[in-house]
Design goal:
By secondary structure, the chain is of the alpha/beta class. Helix content is 40%, strand content 13%. It has one domain: Amidase signature (AS) enzymes. Pfam families: Amidase.
Length: 463
C-alpha cells in the first residue's frame, strides 16, 4: 500500500471508516514527517502535536464506537496562519502579531473541525498575504519540496509546500491576487479560488476585504471537492457571504469534458516563458483529445485587471494597516511595506476608477460565458523562480509578472482552479487554471478531475 502520508483524503476515508487505518497512526505519521523534513521545507509556523494527537485519539474512539462523521474524519489538515484559531497563536506571517492569541475561531476552521478534520498546525505564509513567493524574514522562507532552492509560491506557500512534501493531507489557503493558485502551480498541487462569498472569510484576517477569498488546497481534485463540501455555505457573520443551494461537489466528478466549450483568452497567450508556452500548447491539445472544443477568444478588458486588483488591494490593505504603517513601518517586511505603502498614496478617484474597471471586466467576462462553458489559461506566465539574494526586488517583480494572470478571477469574483500542467526542464511544476462563471465550481472540478487522470506531472520537458 502507498505510504500513509502520500494517500489522499479520498483514499484514506474508506480505510479509516473501515478501521483499517487508525487516525492516531495517520497523525503520528504526519507529525513524524514534519519533525524529519520541515526543518528544510519550513511549511509550518506553529506545529500542534499534542492537540493533534488528542483529537486523533478522540476520532479513533468515536469510529471504534460506530460514530463516523464523514470523509474528513481523522484527516490531517494544515491551516494557513491567517485563519484565527481560538487559543492558538495566529501570526499572519508577521512578527507584529507573533504573540496574537485569538479568542475566536474562523468559521471555516470550525466547519472542518466539526467534520472530523484534525488540525496539525498553522502554516507559513508571506507576511499579511502581501506577496507571491513566501519569503519571510521573521519565520523563515518556506521552500519548494521539489527543490528547496526554489520558491513554493505565496502567499499560501506553506500550505502548498506541506501538501507537496506529505506534511499535511489537506490544507486551507486564501487568494486575493493569486495566493492559492500561484503556490499550487509552483508546487504541483490543486488549489481552488472559489466564487467570491461561497466560502466564509469570517475569522480570516484580511488583506483586501472586497477581494479576499478562502479556499481548499490538496493533492487531488477529489480532495478539493471533499473540502469544498464542508467549507462552502452561507455565513451570517461574513458580510460578503452569498446564499446558495447546498451542492455535493463530489457527485458525478468523473463526468468528463466531452463537448465542453473551452475559451482561451488571447490575453493569456502573451508574455509567456517559452517552457510555459510549450506546456500550455501541449495541454490544449490534450484537452481536445479529452473531448473539449477549444477556441481562442478576445476579452480586451483583461488588460486593465492588474490596475484594478493592484489599486484595490493596496488601498484596502493600507486602510487596514494604516495606523501601524505610520507607527511601526520598520516592523513590516520591506517588500510588504513597499506594497502596502503604495495604497497609502492611492487617491479616492483611483480607487473608484479601479472599481469601475472591475465592473466593466465582470460584465465582459459574463458575456463571454454565454458562448463558452469555461476558460483556460496558464496559472502564471513564468516557471518557478529560484530564490535570489535580493529577494525584495524579486518579490515585487514576480507580483508584477503574475498579477495579470491571477487578478481577473479575483477582480470578477469568478472561480478558478489551478491544476498541474507538467514540469519544466528543471523538473519543477508548472500550473494551468480553469476559470468558470460564478458558482460553476462543480464544472471546474469535473474538468480538473478529467485532467488529473492524464497524470500531468509525468510530462517533463527535456533540457
Amino acid at each position: 500500500m502507498t505510504e500513509l502520508h502520500a494517500l489522499s483524503a479520498t483514499e484514506l476515508a474508506p480505510l479509516i471508516k473501515g478501521k483499517k487505518v487508525s487516525p492516531v497512526e495517520l497523525i503520528e505519521t504526519i507529525l513524524s514527517r514534519i519533525n524529519q523534513l520541515d526543518g528544510e521545507v519550513n511549511s509550518y509556523i506553529t506545529v500542534l502535536p499534542e492537540l493533534a494527537l488528542e483529537k486523533a485519539r478522540h476520532a479513533e474512539s468515536q469510529i471504534m464506537n460506530g460514530v463516523y462523521e464523514g470523509p474528513l474524519h481523522g484527516i490531517p489538515v494544515g491551516i494557513k496562519d491567517n485563519y484565527e484559531t481560538k487559543g492558538i497563536r495566529t501570526t499572519v506571517g508577521s512578527g507584529i502579531l507573533s504573540d496574537y492569541i485569538p479568542h475566536t475561531t474562523a468559521t471555516t476552521v470550525k466547519k472542518l473541525s466539526c467534520a472530523g478534520g484534525i488540525m496539525t498546525g498553522k502554516l507559513n505564509m508571506h507576511e499579511f498575504g502581501g506577496g507571491l513567493t513566501n519569503t519571510n524574514p521573521v519565520y523563515g522562507h518556506s521552500r519548494n519540496p521539489w527543490n528547496i532552492d526554489y520558491s513554493p509560491g505565496g502567499s499560501s506557500g506553506g500550505s502548498a509546500a506541506a501538501l507537496a512534501a506529505g506534511l499535511a493531507t489537506l490544507a486551507t489557503g486564501t487568494d486575493t491576487f493569486g495566493s492559492i493558485r500561484v503556490p499550487a502551480a509552483m508546487c504541483g498541487i490543486y488549489g481552488l479560488k472559489p466564487t467570491y462569498g461561497l466560502v466564509s472569510t469570517n475569522g480570516v484576517l484580511p488583506l483586501a476585504w472586497s477581494l479576499d477569498h478562502a479556499g481548499p488546497m490538496a493533492r487531488s481534485v477529489s480532495d478539493v471537492a471533499l473540502m469544498l463540501n464542508v467549507m462552502a455555505g452561507y455565513d451570517a457573520e461574513d458580510p460578503g457571504s452569498i446564499k446558495t443551494r447546498a451542492t455535493d461537489y463530489t457527485h458525478n466528478l468523473s463526468k468528463g469534458i466531452k463537448g465542453l466549450k473551452v475559451g482561451v483568452p488571447s490575453f493569456f497567450l502573451q508574455g509567456l516563458d517559452p517552457e510555459v508556452e510549450q506546456l500550455f500548447q501541449q495541454a490544449l491539445l490534450k484537452l481536445e483529445e479529452l473531448g473539449a472544443m477549444v477556441k481562442e477568444i478576445s476579452i480586451p478588458q483583461l488588460e486593465m485587471s492588474s490596475f484594478s486588483n493592484y489599486v484595490i488591494t493596496t488601498g484596502e490593505a493600507a486602510t487596514y494597516h494604516y495606523e501601524k504603517l505610520q507607527q511601526i513601518p520598520e516592523q513590516y517586511a520591506s517588500d510588504v511595506r513597499t506594497f502596502f505603502t503604495a495604497g497609502v498614496l492611492t487617491h479616492t478617484p483611483q480607487y473608484v476608477r479601479a472599481q469601475q474597471v472591475r465592473r466593466s471586466l465582470t460584465e465582459a467576462i459574463k458575456k463571454e460565458f454565454e458562448d463558452v462553458d469555461m476558460m483556460v489559461a496558464p496559472t502564471i506566465p513564468i516557471t518557478t523562480p529560484k530564490f535570489q539574494d535580493d529577494w525584495i526586488a524579486q518579490n515585487l517583480a514576480i507580483t508584477k509578472k503574475c498579477m495579470p494572470f491571477t487578478s481577473p478571477a479575483n477582480v470578477t469574483g469568478t472561480p478558478s482552479l489551478s491544476v498541474p500542467m507538467g514540469r519544466c526542464s528543471k523538473g519543477l511544476p508548472v500550473g494551468m487554471q480553469f476559470i468558470g462563471n460564478h458558482q460553476t465550481e462543480k464544472l471546474l472540478l469535473q474538468a480538473g478531475e478529467a485532467w488529473e487522470q492524464t497524470d500531468p506531472l509525468t510530462n517533463t520537458l527535456e533540457k
